[in-house]
Amino acid sequence: MAYLGEPRATQLVEAVARYLDEVAVPKLEGHAAFHGKVAINVLHIVAREISLGPAAAEAERARLADLLGADGDLDALRRMLCEKLTTGVFTLETPGLATHLLEAAADRVRIEQPNYASLKRV
Description:
Blueprint: H1 9-24, H2 30-68, H3 74-86, H4 97-112
Helix pairs in contact: 1-2, 2-3, 2-4
């Protein structure tokens, strides 16, 4: 997506999250407060997906292309990997597979749960 000027999508999402966190949710109680906090968390995930997702997807696509010796879009390469795993062509002993899986999982955790304690070991 082309950058059209201020504010960027991540800034808008973070502004809504900040408003909910600082103004709206403190006035709520019970289930409404809980759901407000969930909404804040979702907005932070969306902001990280916007800012980190494209690079993570391209890194995964490049790793898969190298691992599979094939080119294609991310979905096609993921399907190829699944086929090789389900048919037994690839196993955890396949060079590069474990590293790819670890990196792909770590990238998802960086987006969805960046404070996850085990992420700091990756």
